Amino acid sequence: MFSKLPPTVMIALKSVMYLLVFVIAWLPLNAWHFMEETGQYNLYAWWPLFLLLVALPVVDHILGQDPANPTDEQVERMAKQKWYAFLTLMVVPAQFALLAFGAWVFVNTPQFSLLGQIGWVLSVGMVSAILAINVGHELIHRRTKIENWAGGLLYALVCYAGFKVEHVRGHHVTVSTPDDASSSRYGQTLYQFLPHAYVHNFLNAWKLEAEYLRRRGLPAVHWRNELIWWYSISAALVVGWGVMFGWLGALFFLGVSFMSFTTLEIINYVEHYGLHRRRLPSGRYERTTPAHSWNSNYLLTNMGLFHLQRHSDHHAFPQRRYQVLRHYDEAPQLPTGYSGMYVLALVPPLWFKVMNPRVEAYYKGEEWQLAADQFEQRARPQAEAA
Fold first, then answer.
1. Under a CB-based contact definition with an 8 Å cutoff, are residues 150 and 225 in contact?
2. Contact in structure between 332 and 309 (CB atoms under 8 Å)
3. Confidence class of residue 2 from pLDDT cuts 50, 70 and 90?
4. Domain-by-domain residue ranges, the chain?
């Protein structure tokens, strides 16, 4: 649908389409209006979730993929534009408003059954993931204090501040290797992946921060340990929501946080499934390239996620702002956008049926790489060949 548009026109159009993230932020309010108008509170509690996980993948395929890649000159110019930075920073007050409104509805809607309450928490949690998790991910890669701290605050708003440390200092260093809990293995189900990801990423964040402080001659328990600050903010927010909305408000905050950071780990599962960095004869792993992340170029989902789906370029060039990320035809390609892949990952037999042939095709001729228990033996065939 957009394939015939000149890249300059497409890039200009996308600068406006990034506002879609605020349309997504509006979905819970839209659902509440439907509840009030129809009286179907339990049904419309699930409305945002339905739109994001059922309707969006369909529309994504109707609109098709995004053909526009910025040139080197455009990359340099676009990276300096304040519009994109402004949009991402505006997500911080939007996330606060979402959590406050969501808690108010949760606490003040006696028409909710247990099913409605669950649907509302999951719906707000999914929207929260798109706001806090996705935009926070963009901001923690930025070097300006206001953006970097805004990213940390967004993760504190979903009780997952360890990601700020672990992602930048851990995941981007060890991605697609056995040391990375956020890189899912070939043949590993989502439900095997999630518990390890939760625990490892939390503990590794503290380990990395302790090492960072030790190199500066400081103990791990110190006021300069940023994790202490971020988790303290999370605890204060839970208490604050409890004071404002009662114990149900605090429960809502924790439930939304769990849904949000679980969505993060599900997307991690999707982004690197079965892809490995080869171990070189020297014992080191090859440099991270666009080949070590799954890429998706479907336009609509990318606009709602500030281009997160061009994940191959993000790992090859972590400092690039989202809006200038490029599509690589040679990178491994997902069959649909993240929204559709999220649903697919929840059903392991379907996931394996769709994704395993793609992984196998990608490693044709190097099938020995597919065995998860042979990660440490990958150097052997290369050494023998040499």
1. no
2. no
3. low
4. 7-385
Whole-angstrom CA distances from 177 to 24, 276, 279, 308 are: 34, 6, 9, 21
CA–CA separation, 122 and 144 (whole Å):
33
Closest to 26 (Cα-Cα) out of 91, 112, 118, 122: 91
**Integer angstrom CA distances of residue 169 from 43, 162, 272, 309:** 42, 11, 17, 21
Give the pLDDT confidence of 318-331 residue by residue, as tens digits.
877 878 888 888 88
What pTM was estimated for this model as a whole? 0.91
Whether 272 contacts 183, CB under 8 Å: yes
- Token look-up 């605090």 returns 250
Q: What is the rounded CA–CA span in Å between residue 18 and residue 23?
A: 10
Q: Which residues contact 308 (CB under 8 A, 6 or more apart)?
A: 134, 137, 138, 302, 314, 322, 338
Q: Which is higher by pLDDT, 67 or 288?
A: 288
* CA 350 – CA 159 distance, rounded (Å): 31
The maximal CA–CA distance of the chain, rounded, in angstroms, is 71
